[in-house]
Design a protein that fits this description.
6-stranded mixed beta barrel; 46% helix
């Protein structure tokens, strides 16, 4: 009960002070938006806001620079890919005349196990492929990828050619693709 009395007294006192200030016409800058004078708290707050704004602008500039660099790197990557694709197209057009079409095959990629291929040789990047439906030693042309030799077999289906690549990352990136395949007759 005594606690309620203290609260009532404080509330009454605060209301009285506010009423007196209102009657006397005292304007506080925090209450009067037309007041021209700012308090020291407002100046301090403005200083903090200005510092924060400068930090945000600096961070934005840094992020923009990073984005610009990433964008320029991507453009360079795309240019290299385009050049590589143009080289492949040129090579493909030269080699397309060399063989007879045997079908459209699913392409996958595999890496070395340290063992010899089914043909007895060690696999070579950009040369060795594994396939169960094409005889060992057959030279083939894979549209878009170039010439290879069937030197290995594996646990794949009949219409799958497994291309030997250098590392695990390349094999994963290669994924599964489809291409027309030709047997090269010499």
């Amino acid at each position: 009960m005594r606690l309620n009395t203290k609260k009532k007294i404080r509330l009454t006192l605060a209301t009285s002070v506010f009423a007196a200030l209102t009657i006397w016409g005292v304007h506080l800058p925090a209450q009067d938006i037309t007041a021209e004078e700012t308090s020291s708290i407002d100046a301090f707050t403005q200083e903090i806001l200005d510092e924060h704004k400068a930090e945000v602008e600096a961070e934005k500039a840094l992020q923009n620079a990073k984005c610009r660099e990433m964008y320029e790197n991507r453009i360079e990557d795309y240019k290299l890919q385009a050049e590589t694709s143009l080289d492949r197209v040129a090579k493909n057009s030269q080699n397309a005349e060399k063989g007879s079409f045997i079908g459209s095959y699913q392409l996958t990629a595999y890496i070395a196990t340290g063992n010899r291929c089914a043909s007895g040789v060690y696999p070579t990047v950009n040369h060795t492929v594994a396939c169960n439906s094409i005889p060992l030693g057959t030279k083939i042309y894979i549209e878009g990828y170039g010439e290879f030799v069937v030197e290995d077999t594996g646990g794949m289906a009949g219409n799958v050619i497994d291309i030997f690549v250098a590392d695990y990352g390349s094999a994963i990136q290669f994924g599964r693709r489809t291409a027309n395949v030709y047997v090269i007759s010499e």
